[in-house]
Amino acid sequence: MSDLLDDPIPGQNTPEYTVSEISGEVKRTLEGSFGRIRVRGEVGRVFKARSGHLYYDIKDDRNVLACTTWKGQVAGLSVVPEEGLEVVVTGRLTAFGAQSKYNLNVDEVSVAGQGALMALLEKRKKQLEVEGLFAPERKKPLPYLPQVIGVVTSPSGAVIRDILHRLRDRFPRKVLIWPVAVQGANCASEVARAIEGFNQLTPGGALPRPDLIIVARGGGSIEDLWGFNEEIVARAAAASDIPLISAVGHETDTTLIDFVSDQRAPTPTAAAELAVPVRMELLAWTGEQGARLSRAATDAVQRRAQRLHDLSRALPRPDSLLNSPRQRLDLIADRLTPALIRGVQNRRLQVVELSAHLRPSTLRSLVSARRESLHNLSSRLSLRPIQKEIDQQRQNLNRLGDRMHTAQTARLDRLKQQLEATDRLRETLSYKATLDRGYAVVRAEGNVITTKAQAAKQTALEIEFADGILSTGAAAKPSSKKPKPGAPDQGSLF
Predict the structure, then answer these.
(1) Distance between CA atoms of 458 and 443, rounded to whole angstroms?
(2) What is the DSSP letter of 440?
(3) Which residues 6+ apart lie within 8 Å of 66 measured at CB?
(4) 26, 95 in Cβ contact below 8 A?
(5) Which of 82, 143, 367, 411 is 20 to 30 Å apart from 229, CA to CA?
(6) Residue 366, φ and ψ in degrees, nearest 5
(7) Where are the beta strands (DSSP E) in 370-418?
(8) Would you say the pTM of this structure is higher than 0.70?
């Protein structure tokens, strides 16, 4: 009874909790007390799991707060946490009972001040520059006259209207618009997907692949333009196989996409001017080049015609072309008969001299000696190899004879063709051809008349046409005198 009446041990009536129950109570207390909060600090360790979840720390000079952003929340972040960046994170404080830890589930991250943004921008710029994405040699030249232009911008802003208006004024082209958000959390991902989407289009497909891409946005603060400073946008622009013009902000605004693009335009309107030439200027230049080409061709033809005329004046007269060959032929013909006679006489003397030393007995003894020697040799040698060699030599001789005959025939044919060509040239340059074109030669007493004064002194004239000679004046009969050589070249042709 005494035990039943004793006081209980202090704390013995305190309720008991299981581990899960106490962890749940702590979690509910944290979430109920704090709710949605904003925390400012410096980003510490950053770790991205294979599942896509993002784990990182927010710290100050004394404490560290663990933060978590789930895979589905990462795409909605306007700024991806990077180590050393000062940020303001927004989310809900919760606890993780399995490890007796609490953390902040973050669904929004913003940079704490413009100075931090500039520091982050400078850090990314140095990183991309080290990788070579800003190198001039990797930039592609812009097409001179693109057939299709892809524009990545907001479809509802004034930027697209300015670009279309400028293209219509300069040189109308087909334009494909890929609508994107130009600021906010979705800006970077949509712009990167638009650049990649244009590059994935098939050339010549139902939806044509652009020859040039323009990424454009109007002016704004650094926070408004921050989507174009994201690394995902810069890498998409650098990886584009299609030449890309960046026209983000005003002339004084600079973003990362400006450094990796193939060409930077100070304004969207200037981007349209870089994309296409002025159509009227191009037509004027084309017309000017066509006129220059025509003038050059005409001048070239005229110079060659004048050169041909000058060369034709330097050609010799037709008769002089055959004078030297004719003279050589006459000389050779005169020397041929005496040479043949002397050759026959010399050979006759040689035969007589040789026959004087021949005697029948001498021939018989020589033949007998040769026959005996041949008999001795034939007993040692077979005649078949000799006959075979003789046949081979005879075939070689026949082939040489055929080649000589063919070569001589070809040479004679070439000489004949040259002679015929020379004769045709003589006929072409003859004054007879001039008569065929309607000219005539005037003569008096066999002499060529070249002036009107000489013709007036004559009582009778002979006019030679292509088909005959006409006599005029007192004689009125064909002249018996032949025209002097060279007269047609000095006569009057009319």
Answers:
(1) 10
(2) -
(3) 55, 57, 101, 102, 103, 104
(4) yes
(5) 143
(6) -65, -40
(7) none
(8) no
The percent of the chain in helix, strand and coil, each rounded to the nearest 5, is 50, 20, 30
Q: Which residue has the tokens 């600079």?
A: 254
pLDDT digits 0-9 by tens, 144-178: 999 999 999 999 888 999 999 999 999 999 999 99
Residue with structure tokens 């200037």? 270
8 Å CB contact between 479 and 458: no
Residue ranges of alpha helices (H) inside 225-359 are: 231-238, 256-260, 268-275, 279-313, 318-356
Distance CA 128, CA 134 (A): 7
Q: Which helix or strand (DSSP H or E) is residue 469 part of?
A: strand 468-473
For the chain, the farthest-separated pair of C-alpha atoms sits apart, in whole angstroms, at: 192
Closest CA to 255 of 226, 224, 220: 226
Q: Across all residues in the chain, what is the average pLDDT?
A: 84
pLDDT level of residue 493 (50, 70, 90 thresholds): very low
Residue 56 bridge partners (DSSP)? 46, 67
In degrees, to the nearest 5, what angle opens at C-alpha 333 toward C-alphas 331 and 337? 120
Among candidate residues 47, 36, 105, 114, the one with its CA nearest the CA of residue 77: 105
Is the pLDDT score of 69 beyond 90? yes
Q: Report residue 472: phi and psi, to 5°.
A: -130, 160
Closest to 191 measured CA to CA, from 149, 241, 230, 141:
230
Give the integer Cα–Cα distance in Å for 77 and 105: 13
Rounded Cα–Cα distance for residues 46 and 329 (Å):
109
Q: Are 229 and 121 in contact (CB under 8 A)?
A: yes
The two three-digit tokens of residue 28, written as one number: 């509910």
Nearest to 234 by CA among 198, 268, 261, 262: 261
> What's the CA gap between 290 and 307, in Å, rounded?
26
Strands 441-444 and 460-465: antiparallel
Nearest of 74, 37, 79, 44 to residue 58 by alpha carbon: 44
